[in-house]
Q: What sequence folds into this?
């Protein structure tokens, strides 16, 4: 479930947003001031923030400047184009003017989550129970961390990028040569055997299969 932080000191608007967002299947956090919003953000990480600008204490611009890596949709009565441009250039993902149409706001929220999904798909590979995070350079099976060597990581990444294809040994060696120039045909089988063993120990089943006389593929 995606969680949305609603930052607005208008109780009526906040209550309305919370009710509608819950009906749409979102989790909701509430903050009534800029300081309270930063306190919540310091202890947890919502998936999206709906941010009013006119807040007691820290204003919306100050809160926006402190948020990193979370899409923020500004929801404000300020309708001047200059304000919108400034905030969008300052890090806001979108800007909605009050009073707003709820269907439009929900659509804009859905667009942000769609963008986030695309980014995650580019940086994270999922096959069966395995997740390979290309930013963290990590591998997990059923949320259990698996320590792999540089060569094993390169092999797994190639196989997971092409989960339905049988990858010939020669192609594997060619594709991973930039990352692991020390891997040669005589050692490839050993690297794959070790990788299969690590994944099997973590997940309790085989994830990579040999296709006799050709190469290897993900077991799907």
A:
């Amino acid at each position: 479930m995606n969680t949305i932080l609603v930052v607005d000191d208008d109780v009526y608007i906040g209550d309305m947003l919370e009710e509608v967002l819950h009906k749409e299947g979102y989790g909701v956090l509430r903050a009534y001031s800029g300081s309270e919003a930063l306190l919540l953000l310091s202890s947890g990480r919502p998936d999206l923030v709906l941010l009013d600008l006119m807040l007691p204490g820290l204003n919306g611009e100050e809160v926006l400047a402190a948020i990193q890596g979370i899409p923020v949709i500004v929801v404000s009565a300020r309708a001047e184009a200059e304000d919108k441009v400034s905030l969008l250039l300052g890090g806001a993902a979108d800007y909605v003017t009050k009073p707003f149409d709820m269907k439009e706001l929900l659509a804009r929220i859905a667009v942000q989550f769609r963008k986030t999904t695309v980014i995650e798909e580019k940086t994270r590979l999922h096959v069966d129970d395995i997740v390979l995070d290309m930013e963290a350079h990590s591998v997990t099976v059923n949320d259990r961390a698996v320590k792999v060597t540089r060569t094993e990581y390169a092999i797994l990444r190639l196989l997971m990028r092409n989960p339905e294809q049988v990858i010939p040994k020669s192609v594997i060696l060619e594709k991973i040569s930039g990352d692991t120039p020390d891997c040669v045909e005589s050692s490839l089988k050993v690297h794959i055997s070790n990788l299969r063993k690590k994944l099997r120990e973590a997940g309790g089943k085989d994830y990579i299969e040999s296709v006799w006389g050709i190469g290897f593929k993900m077991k799907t």
Notes: The helical segments are 11-23, 34-43, 60-66, 81-89, 102-123, 150-161, 169-176, 185-203.
